[in-house]
Design brief:
The protein is built from 15 helices and 5 strands. By secondary structure, it is of the alpha/beta class. The protein folds into 3 domains: about 1-65, no CATH class; about 75-245, Rossmann fold, CATH 3.40.50; about 280-360, no CATH class. A 5-stranded parallel beta sheet has the order 2-3-4-1-5. Helix 9 links the parallel strand 3 (about 170-175) and strand 4. The longest helix has 28 residues, at about 40-70.
Length: about 375
């Protein structure tokens, strides 16, 4: 026991000199467990060294996450991957493997505002840092241009580009939102040219490549920048609605879709076997009941308005000329009732166009029903 007590201070001092803090904390408890479980010396040594390596890996990941300037709240757990199109989801899962960084390939995310471009790239970079142990750096395009212009004035632009070259992947977010001066365009182009086939660039923009001339203001520079980005690249288009708009709608409606109090729906119906071209079940029942009544005792269209607020419509006259006049009055009274178009007929199975206003049945439907 005294020999062990004499060894302990020397061992702790040596572990401090070797910068092995985890081994210094856990070697005694691990030694007692090794005695109970009759572990060999090699197994004991492997246990304490493995703990030291794991703790160092965690510390390195935390240090890289802090240096990456990533928005950590935009993680993979906070993004609904079901919103992505099938192709974009497959591409994103492939990017999580991180092999594109070894091939020095670029990644380009395009889409409307609020589609989740920045969130996806930030989540991708976090997974690459934590799981694949890759060095990433996140920056807004406007802030990047400010840093590069300041480095150019000092001058230390080459040193700044070399510093950015230490990262496996450089994320440039929101390219194309701000008007750029000639100096801004030159430093951005210099950075892209220096990283060409030396390191991956991951970018987001709401502008397609066809409108990049609005960014660089020069056709030759635009073509050169696109060529360096696209040559080894993965291009992902997010043609999905803005999640910010969806969240605002959910908050305004309490998580339910917006509904109106009351509206009128003018339903067009053919007299073909009692089938309804559009409308809800209640409207179908009312039309079918009216159809059965008209079959049993033919009644002019004007009498269908009885009992409703538009009951002032007169009964259609018997003569053909008077019937045409009455039909014109009916159509002018209901200006939204139109003859179905060809696309409407194909969609709802109408075999022919309606010939006159006598074949229209106007139904007032409460949306709450």
């Amino acid at each position: 026991m005294s020999a062990a007590a004499d060894v302990r201070p020397a061992l702790i001092g040596n572990l401090k000199d070797l910068h092995l803090p985890t081994v210094r904390e856990c070697y005694e408890d691990t030694a007692r467990r090794a005695e109970r479980e009759t572990l060999s010396y090699e197994q004991y040594l492997l246990e304490v060294i493995s703990r030291e390596c794991e703790q160092r890996r965690k510390s390195k990941v935390q240090r890289w996450l802090k240096d990456s300037a990533l928005p950590l709240e935009k993680s993979l757990q906070n993004f609904d991957l079901k919103r992505l199109p099938a192709k974009a989801a497959r591409q994103f899962r492939t990017l999580l493997e991180g092999s594109f960084l070894g091939r020095k390939e670029n990644v380009w995310y395009s889409g409307i505002q609020g589609s989740g471009k920045s969130h996806l790239l930030a989540a991708l970079a976090q997974e690459l840092v934590v799981v694949r142990e890759r060095k990433m750096h996140f920056t807004k395009c406007a802030l990047l241009m400010q840093d590069l212009l300041a480095a150019k004035r000092d001058p230390r632009l080459s040193r700044e580009i070399k510093r950015l070259g230490r990262y496996d992947g450089l994320i440039i977010d929101d390219l194309g939102y701000l008007q750029q001066s000639r100096d801004d365009r030159e430093v951005v182009f210099t950075l892209l040219a220096e990283r060409y086939e030396r390191g991956s660039v991951l970018m987001t923009s709401h502008l397609p490549f066809s409108k990049w001339e609005a960014i660089f203001k020069d056709a030759m520079m635009t073509a050169a920048a696109i060529d360096r980005l696209v040559h080894p690249s993965v291009i992902i288009e997010l043609n999905i609605p803005s999640y910010r708009v969806e969240r605002r709608q959910e908050k305004s409606t309490g998580g339910k879709p917006e509904r109106g109090r009351m509206r009128r729906r003018w339903t067009l119906r053919r007299k073909t076997g009692g089938k309804e071209s559009c409308g809800n079940a209640g409207a179908v029942e009312r039309v079918e009941s009216q159809t059965r009544a008209s079959h049993s005792s033919p009644e002019p269209l004007g009498n269908l308005a009885k009992g409703r607020r538009d009951s002032h419509i007169s009964t259609a006259p018997a003569t053909t000329a008077d019937r045409k006049v009455e039909n014109q009055k009916l159509v002018s009274h209901f200006p939204t009732a139109r003859i179905p178009s060809l696309s409407f007929k194909k969609q709802h199975g109408c075999g022919r166009a309606l010939r006159s206003a006598q074949e229209l049945k106007v139904i007032v439907v409460d949306r709450k029903n």
